[in-house]
Amino acid sequence: MASDQSKVLSILEKPYEKPKGDVATGIEFPSDLAVTDRIAGRQPTSGAGVEIGKATFVRRGTAFSLFIESHRLAAKDLIDAFMRTDGLQALVELAARVKVLVNESLFVYAFSYVILHKKDLQNVRLPSLIEMFPNKFVPQEDIMKAQVEANRRDPDDTTPIIIEYGPEFSSTNIKPEHRVSYWREDYGINSHHWHWHLAYPAGFGDPPDRKGELFFYMHQQMLARYDMERLSVGLTRTEKLENWRIPVPDGYFSKLTVNNTSRAWGTRQDNSMLMDFKRQDLGLDPIDITDIEIWRSRLLDAIHQGYMIDRNGDKVPLSDDVTSGKRGIDILGDAFEADRRLSVNSLYYGDLHNLGHVVIAFTHDSDNAHKEDMGVMGDSSTAMRDPIFYRWHKFVDDVFQEYKLTQQPYSLEDLSLPNVVLDRVGVLSKDQADALSTGWTVREFEAFRGLDFNSRAPVNLRITHIDHAPFDYHLQVTNRLEAPKQVTVRIFLAPKFNVRGLEMSFMEQRLLWAEMDKFTVTLKPGTNHVVQSSSDSSITTSEEYTFRDLETGPQPGTSRREFNFCGCGWPQHVLLPRGTPGGMVFQLFVMVTDFEKDKVDQQGNTGRCANGVSFCGILDAKYPDSRPMGFPFDRRNPPQFQSAADFAEQLDNVNLHDITITFQASSLTK
Ligand code: CUO
Predict the structure, then answer these.
(1) Which of 491, 547, 566, 583 is the most exposed place for a label (fewest CB within 10 A)?
(2) What is the C-alpha to C-alpha distance for residues 538 and 561, in angstroms, rounded to an integer?
């Protein structure tokens, strides 16, 4: 009898497969409903008592976007239908029936959401997104070549057909932005982003703890990492996209397909204009550039006035120094993303971030005159490929930072930890102190599960991606107390020099600090030597599960923690910035804080989906650090500290240390 895991895997295989013959779904499904019917949710009628509400609003073979409210409502209705089933067998049966009726990406999204949230499916894991949707990661041309090869093949030939991708990715090096294509198109980064928006949906499900704040923090951290990567290849930091009435210099051509065969993602020419948006086919009201400008002004007004205004006209104060209720950054994040359920006033503050994605995704066909589908900015699994993603999110972050700079700098009491001295810090890799290395490596995935090839030969994707040699942090910490002391260790990394080769002030460097790890340790009285492996980082997951990993189950030696991850989390292989061939200097900033002040009272199961917690939180539990996310870099500097070095010189519990990261232009040696 098939295990729960294999039943789930079989549902997730071949999402694009067409219904065979007469599909006895029990659901009456008109083949092509008018838009007005779809918007009104008048289909499908439930012939056999199955209600999937507006789930069919998103047509099969088209793009599905979490940034569009009608698509989110479709996801909600499908999720609700799945959640109402009693037991795995009923879920799998319903899923098999609706799989051929609803949009493919919507189906996988909703089914994945249910796998994570249904209590009786806690032992089931999701396979890698790249194996479910190779077409969202690899250009159409390469997939078609494999298809032609499969058709040409002798049916008895079972040697794998290989599709190679990288290190050139979708572009040349003619345009400066292409120097970081390898990073933007990394399979793990895009997969993480899809999983993050699966874990933190806007508009449905039980709202996770500090959702708005984590929306701010996780995206800010991805920007910090992108800027470190840019500095590594000699590019300037990302410029925010805040003037929406001038041409956007960088175009983007993903070369991917939406539906595995022929429907292309929309493209954007260099120097395109953002346009007023009118597409009734998406069930959205028109959005003018003026609308998003007005929402921005209202958010900035709220930030500078210190409060938002709810639907009753009452003031909702914005402050991060609260001892109960939501922090200001959390309230602002929910209103800005926007999550209409959680926004204090969605009519007034709008839906700025989401609809920015939508307007950008439709620069090429904002009124549906050409019947073109959206660009990759519309889909959370492809958006990070496009350089404009970072420029848009830099704008979003800039508004959040405008708020953060209204907050009082941290006091010495907030920052210090009496009687604990962080004497020394450093890293060790391949027996070398303070010298880390990055380089190219190759990973293979199976592609045939996500493609509808009729081939007996396996089709594999061979992806070139950046990686690093593993390393350990070494800390020497003195506890001057007579009793053991529990502390939180916070490790950040930032480039030491700016693009002009100069050391940076606190404010110039502040948004480049990338969290590397955060963990709790108990210090015995006296000297302690703490060693932490890079593979245990609080931001990363173990690598993704392939279908094959899940079919065979955890390998001997796999720790419970490793087998416990749920897909969300920064990929381990991009934990480090690339550095340079000659060795680029970075600074490690390590701070120990009092666990008594940091800890969070947890109720419930904190062991589930507890990987990559700094970026992803813990499923159904509280975010496990009571400090504002990004502490101590989320606020401006206290006046006595003009640089990170001043922190380290004046606070015993902080240490700053230079390390180099060397990029090996050939393959990485670990
Ligand atoms: Cu993740 Cu804009 O929120 O892409």
Answers:
(1) 583
(2) 12
* Residue 383 CB–ligand 1 contact under 6 Å: yes
Return the structure tokens found at 329: 């950054």
- pLDDT the model gives residue 30: 42
Is 576 touching ligand 1 by the criterion CB < 6 Å?
A: no
| Residues 423, 567 within the same domain | yes
Q: Which domain holds residue 380?
A: 203-404
**Mean pLDDT, rounded, for 646-667:** 95
Q: Which residue has the higher pLDDT, 659 or 143?
A: 659
pLDDT-wise least confident of 147-151, 490-494, 665-669 = 665-669
| 131 falls within a domain | no
> Which of 98, 124, 150 is at the close of a domain?
124
CA of 575 from ligand 1 middle (Å) equals 20
Choose the final residue of a domain: 404, 431, 454.
404
What is the average pLDDT across 104-113? 96
Residue 516 lies in a domain: yes
Smallest Cα–Cα separation from 64: which of 369, 287, 282, 292? 282
ipTM value for the complex: 0.99
**Is 503 known to be catalytic?**
no
Q: Residues 6 or more apart from 262 whose CB is under 8 A from it? A: none
Please count the structural domains in the chain: 3
Residue 31 predicted with pLDDT over 70: no
Assess whether 394 and 435 both reside in one domain.
no
Ligand 1 atom closest to the CA of 383, numbered from 1: 4
Round to whole Å and give the CA distance between 460 and 445. 6
Are residues 400 and 424 located together in one domain of the fold?
A: no
Tens of pLDDT, residues 144-171: 888 888 888 888 888 999 999 887 776 6
Give the CATH number for residue 28: 1.20.1370.10
DSSP 8-state symbol, 102: S
Q: Active-site residue among 69, 104, 131, 337?
A: 337
**pLDDT classification of 49: cutoffs 50, 70, 90:** low
CATH at 419: 2.60.40.1520
> φ, ψ for residue 199 (rounded to 5)?
-75, -30
